[in-house]
């Protein structure tokens, strides 16, 4: 308290030698700076101007690469996609160590006045005009992300699945903005009606869309444009039918996230479609709405980290025309990865536009 009173009644600070910074923080709750500073501005994702600003920065960094995307530049851009707060502040040089500690706690990368992009410790990730930053600089991730990556690595090693050590960590607990359970349920039901319609189209007696709408009305309120277009067709093409038939794999993930399935089996075989369908049909929409259990966030993040790395291994094997390790099914992984990325709001995209980069 005494120190705070001293700061309150101190003489106006000379800011002529201050270091000007813009910190882009991925954590949901940014710690309050506990050092002398001047706050120039602060905004969160609730501020409608932040998202366009972040998009502008990402485009600027991509253009600055002059057609070349280095690993560091790529991961700096990925960091900006996870940013939840922008804090602009300045401080005297003697406060620099305290600023670095704060930036690390905020999981921030820092844009400097001279155009450099720095890590929390002040090491240059990207100079203003090249890709030749400090080789010791690191795009930051919270400790939980590193710990999760290490645990996943042990699981992969046990199955003799090799992935590069430099594949990055993913989103972790301090950064997480999970979809609400009611949104997950709505999405699961929408996927279910398009999957069951696609399945019926492969047989002799397709289920009429009107019958599905009568049985599962809440599902139709949550359809995406692509799903609505599919259901509007009397005879969609085989490729489209197959695409929506694979959605059972995504439904499994969402049912698991809602506590409706006990586990996600290893991704070397297709899901049990009858069990997935029974989960919906036996409970009905009213029974599903009463489902009280939501999967703990750490378990969802564990699944995401594992499936991201499995998907990398599967894609690399297909690309190189080598045997896929551990019998992995790439189509299963694609659907699971898609659903998990949607759950954690990857790139803030809605279902039809979710990406699954590896």
Give the structure's gist in a few sentences.
This protein has 14 helices and six strands. The protein has 358 residues and is α+β, with helices and mostly antiparallel strands.
List keywords for this structure.
358 residues; alpha+beta; 6 strands; 9% strand
Overview of this structure, please?
The chain has 358 residues and is α+β, with helices and mostly antiparallel strands. Helices cover 48% and strands 9% of the residues. The protein is built from 14 helices and six strands. It has helices at residues 2-8, 50-64, 71-81, 96-105, 143-158, 181-201, 209-215, 217-221, 225-231, 238-245, 247-257, 273-289, 297-320, 330-343; strands at residues 19-25, 38-44, 85-91, 108-112, 117-118, 124-126. It has a six-stranded antiparallel beta sheet, with helices on both faces. A hairpin with a 5-residue loop joins strand 5 (117-118) and strand 6.
């Amino acid at each position: 308290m005494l120190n705070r009173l001293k700061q309150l009644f101190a003489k106006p600070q000379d800011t002529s030698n201050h270091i000007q910074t813009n910190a882009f923080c991925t954590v949901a709750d940014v710690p309050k700076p506990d050092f002398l500073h001047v706050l120039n501005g602060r905004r969160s994702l609730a501020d409608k101007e932040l998202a366009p600003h972040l998009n502008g920065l990402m485009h600027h960094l991509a253009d600055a690469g002059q057609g070349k995307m280095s690993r560091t530049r790529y991961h700096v851009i990925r960091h900006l996609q996870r940013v939840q707060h922008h804090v602009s502040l300045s401080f005297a040089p003697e406060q620099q160590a305290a600023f670095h500690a704060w930036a690390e706690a905020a999981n921030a990368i820092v844009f400097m006045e001279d155009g450099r992009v720095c890590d929390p410790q002040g090491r240059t990730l990207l100079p203003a005009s090249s890709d030749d930053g400090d080789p010791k600089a690191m795009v930051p991730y919270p400790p939980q992300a590193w710990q999760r990556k290490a645990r996943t690595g042990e699981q992969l090693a046990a199955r003799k699945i090799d992935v590069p050590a430099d594949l990055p960590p993913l989103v972790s607990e301090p950064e997480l903005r999970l979809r609400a359970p009611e949104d997950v349920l709505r999405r699961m039901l929408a996927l279910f009606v398009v999957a069951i319609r696609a399945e019926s189209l492969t047989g002799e007696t397709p289920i009429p869309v009107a019958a599905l709408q009568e049985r599962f009305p809440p599902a139709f309120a949550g359809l995406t444009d692509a799903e609505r277009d599919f259901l509007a067709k009397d005879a969609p093409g085989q490729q489209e039918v197959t695409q929506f038939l694979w959605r059972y794999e995504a439904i499994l993930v969402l049912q698991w996230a809602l506590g409706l399935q006990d586990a996600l089996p290893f991704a070397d075989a297709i899901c049990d479609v009858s069990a997935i369908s029974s989960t919906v049909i036996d409970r009905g929409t009213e029974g599903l709405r009463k489902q009280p259990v939501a999967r703990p966030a750490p378990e969802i993040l564990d699944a995401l980290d594992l499936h991201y790395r499995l998907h990398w291994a599967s894609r690399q094997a297909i690309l190189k025309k080598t045997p896929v390790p551990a019998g992995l099914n790439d189509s299963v992984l694609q659907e699971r990865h898609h659903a998990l990325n949607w759950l954690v709001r990857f790139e803030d995209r809605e279902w039809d536009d979710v990406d699954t980069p590896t």
